[in-house]
Structures are given as structure tokens and as C-alpha cells.
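Review this today:
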Amino acid sequence: MDAIFRRVSKFVRQSLDRRWRDALEETSPAFGLADLIHHCWRSLGKIRLFLVSNRELSERVDGRPAGELEGKPVTYSVWDLRRLHRAAADPEPEAIEVDLVKDFGGPLPILPAQQLDGDHESYLAAVPGPVLSEIYDRWGARLLEQNVRVFLQARSKVNRGIRDTLAHEPEMFFAYNNGITATAESVEIRNDGKRQLLCGLRNFQIVNGGQTTASIHSATRKKVDISQTFVQMKLSVVNADRAVKLVPKISEYANSQNRVAASDFFSNHPFHVRVEGFSRRIYAPSPDGTFQQSKWFYERARGQYADARGGRTPAERKKFDIEYPRGQRFTKTDLAKFLGVWEGLPHVVSLGAQKNFAAFAGRIGKAWNKNPDDFNEAWYREAIAKALVFKATERIVSAQPWYQGGFRANIVAYAIARISHHVEKTKRAVDFEAIWRRQAPGPMLRETIAVVAERVHDVLVEPPEGMRNVTEWAKKQACWSQAEAIRIEWPTGLINELLSAEARQDAAKSARVDQRVLNGIEAQMAIVNAGGEFWANALAWGQEHGRLSPTEIGVLGVASNVPRKLPTEKQSLRVIRAFEKLQADGYREELPPLQD
């Protein structure tokens, strides 16, 4: 490892030597890289060297000290076979391990802040600005995954104030700024005889103060001297099993500097995490005449798109824009709108983004609890197809000769809902998979949209006596009832772009099975990892306390024989559900994390 890193460091250093670069073959990849390093050198803030290997790093090697290369800080990272396997087997990101002693200049004095008989740990600390900046530089937006917002840039008044304080009065930052609120799953604290010192944190998250943190990091990149800057930190230690419940509450109650929308607080629900995962992984088909594939960017937390795009060089930003076009960015409130109209709720969508999202969150929460496997890749492709229809409808309405401006959002919502209602009555289904493949609605659906939009427009602009406001009329159930009842001359060719209801149900069933198989494999891995003795103890406790059904006793008995006998994927899911039931009834053991 040391020899390899020395060679890479030497290559970087030699790249700055013009005679050495000129001696390379111009068509070789080495020349291209050396030339790139030379031209970008002045703008580089840090050098990260990565070693990727199909061998295993010795467990005796726990890291390599950071250093400098021609005045630039250098860090080292090794992706060995074990780490690559872990990344492939577990879609969850690696834990954020902050070692203040080894990597960030030393421990921080910390003050306990909880009552002696409390059931959790809370602390206060003053974090030097450079340390907070370095931590953010290493993990970036991953520190803000439990935050309801990511960095909103310097557009708001508060964020401009942070920037100006750092630039002109850095020594007053502690006095002027509210600081950050953070959580960690565990902390390492030692006592030097006089005070307590914070040495390390596991799964560190900044749940309030993302704007403060990112602004400090941005100031560092702009060469602002923040050596005299300190940031107040309120730190709560939250166990992983309680994090899902407590962290959103800490985030909600702590956020006050920028206005927080109601939709922001639902962003950590597993539904949104799954949709975000689909959007970062699934490429949309290339439109006809192009070779470039792209993805739709789901902004689970407000500001994610700008943050992901902002910290890049112009060349990287251009590549990002190709992969995630701005027109293919959509938010939680957008998703609620795209789906709500197909559910026959145009009057709810017309209530506005936040009220519609609140209703959407309730529906999604119930559906998720009933069967999370319904939200699979096929569901995601259908959701994007609905987004494509919504955006196309906006353009179609704007182009109609009868459209004189105003109320477009209401016309779009009612037109799509009316089409959805008609298709359902005919016991057919829209072929969303075809829309996904084309990345556009078909010609007959577009023609239908134009016809239906004009008819619902007539309903919207003629509210009943005593009600003059069209947008208020659009929010009423009575308005939707009237739109449902209007007669429409449906284009005869529309049926050619529809599916039978049976074909749609078969496709949905197949997608659920695919998602269930994936979940079953994950459950099977967890059971094997825990071992037979673990499940035997759980079985014994459940029988002793009378908490298990005969079926549950049977599947836990199978799990107790691991590795001699392996439960099926279906049995594995039942084992996990039985174990969760025991935990709810008071069983205190925790499922071990998956090993490397």
C-alpha cells in the first residue's frame, strides 16, 4: 500500500514539471491526466488518493496519516475486496466515523448537559470553524441526511448574514450565530482529570445548522480566514433503534432560521428514501435521435439539487447537468401533485403544495404500512410517466387558442383526473410503461388532453352563483363532481394506447414479486449473519413468555439451525417479523449488523 501511494504521489508531483509532461506520449492516458493536474493545480483545495484492490487490506492497518503534497493537503483511502463487497451487499452508506484525535487536530472540550437520571446523553461544545469545515469537506451532504434541508446557498437573508459575518467579523461568529444541533449514535469521551474531551463520533449528523456548516466550508474554499471562528454545538447521542423516531423531532423543533415547510418533515420516511435511491440509480431511456441517457433527480430534502451541483468544477457541472437535467428535477410536493391527479383528487391538488402534500403523506404512510413492496422499480417508472404527462399537459394547455392565461394549474389537474376517471370506467389502463420508454405521452393521449382540458376549463371558469373566485371553486369537491359528470367526445384512437386492466394488474403483481424477492434475500442474509444461537435464544424467550404462534415457533426453529439448515426467503421474512414482534413485547436483544 505504501509503495503504491508513493508512486501515485510521485506522479502528481511530476505532473507539475513541464519537461516531464512533454516527455510523455500525447495520446496516452497518463499525459491526459498529468496535463489535467497541471491546469487544475491552482484551483485544487485537497488531494484524495484512492487505492482500489481485489486483495484484502491487513486488519492491522487502520489508516494512513494525512499529509501534504506540494503544499496541498493529502488524504488516503483504500477500497479493498472486503470494503467493495460490503458496498455491493449493503446499499446503505458506510457509517460516518469522525476521529477528532487522529484526523482533525485533537479532542474537543465538551460539557454534559443532561439530567443525571435522563435516559439519553446531551452535550454542549464549541467547535472551531476550521474543524467543522474539514469534517464537511470529507463527508459533504452526507452529514445532512437527517436534516430537513440541504444547503440553500447564499440566497436567503440569513445565509447572506452568515457569509458576511465570516468575511468581516469571524471572531464574533459564536456570539451572532445560533450554532448547530447534531446527533450521533455513539461518542468516545475521555477525562483528562480536569475536563471531559470529545474524541470521536459515530454516524454524526447535523440536523439543524446545515446552512451554517456549508457556509463555513464555502468560506474556507474562498480563502476566508476562519481561524478565530467557533461554532456552538448541541449534541444528542441517539441510539440507532430510536433514531427514526427522535431525529425527525429534534430536526423539526431545532429548525427555525429558515422557514421550514411541512413537507420537509416527511423527508426521512422510508418511502422517500427508496424513491431517492431509484432516482439516483435508474436511467431513463434515451429519446429518439440521442445517445445520452439521463436520470430524474428526486429532491428528498430541500436544496439537494443545488448542493449536489454547486460543489463542482465547470466541467463536472456540465457532466452533472447532462446526467440530471434541470427539467428532470422533482420535489416531494411535485410527486404529490403528479400522483394525486391520477387518484381522482384534483380538488385536493388545487389546495396548494403544502396542503396537498399533507394529504399525500397520510395516504402514502398507510399504503407503505400495508405493503411496502408496492413501491418498486415499476412503480417508480410509472410515477415518472405520470410526471411526463403532467408536464406535457402544462405545455398543451398553454398552446390552446381558447387559453387566455390564468388557472393553468387547476385546468391541468382537472384534465388529467378526468382522463383517469374515464379510463378507469372503461376498465382499461394507461400504458405508463410505453410513456416511460418514449419519455413522452403518445399522440392520441396528447390529443385527448387538448379535448378534455377545454371541457374542464369551461367548468372551472363558471363557478356557481355566490362564488366568484375560480381557484376557490377548484378546491371544492362539488367542482370535481361537476367535472366528472360532463359529457366528452373521446377521440376514438385513444383506446389503441390503453392496456387491459388485467395486463396492468399482472405487471404490478410481477413488480411486487421482484421487490419481495429482494427483501427476502436481505432478510436471509440477516438471519445467517446473526447465527443459530441468537435465534435459539429468541425462540426460548418467546416460548417462555407465550408470545409466539405455532407458525412463528416453526420458522424460528428453522433459523436456530443456521448454518446447518437455511430458511427460505419467505421463511426469512417471517422470522424477521416474529423477531420484531418479540422486541415490541419486551425482548431486549438487537439484531447484529451485517458483517463484512
Q: What stands out?
A: The two ends are 21 Å apart (CA to CA). Residues 99-259 form one domain. The chain has four domains: 2-89, 99-259, 275-490, 513-584.
